[in-house]
Protein: Pentapeptide repeat-containing protein
Amino acid sequence: MVTSIILTRYSAGERNFPQIDLREVELIKVNLSETNLTAADLRQARLGKTNLSHTCLQKADMSEAILWGTDLTKADLQEAILREADLSGAILTQVNLERANLLKAILEGSNLSGAKLCHALMIEVDLRPSSDYRTNLSQADLSDANLSYANLSQALLYQAKLDNARLCCANLSTIEENNICVTDLTEASLQNADLSYANFTGAILKKANLTGADLTGTILKNTDLEGAIMPDGTLYNG
Structure:
């Protein structure tokens, strides 16, 4: 009933649905782009492959929502709650997730290139590759984000900004032999980041900036640090 009502209103040209209650709603493969869903209740909603690009979802609660392959290009999710949401394969290019809660969210194979994730809570988030795609965080801004215990194995973090981020005990390793999807942090900025006890086995950190980073207990086995700036400001000398 709720599904048909919102789709009818959207088809009639309405785009303003702030604080709407869409708990457990099923809106699969529909177009809701450029919609105002500020503070909407989307807990456990099923939104697979729905077009939510350019949509305002500030402070929306999407806890445990299913967003497989959902298009959230340039959407505004500042302070949104995505706790334990499944965003596998989602398109999140240039999305704004500043101060969003992504605790234990699944982002396998999602595209987060150019995303803003400053101060986001990402403890135990899963950013491993899916069977079809690797997770793309190229040029994403993760400054001050909390990625403690996160799984970023084989993620693409080319030129990502991780200054002051917390990656304590995070997994950024590439364990499988001959795997072409190496965790890639080429030219990434990790200034003053907490990398304590993180696992970078087999990762690429070429020309990365680690100035002031905490490497207490960090595993750097077979890590490529060519041209990287080390915590003390000196160039890596292997």
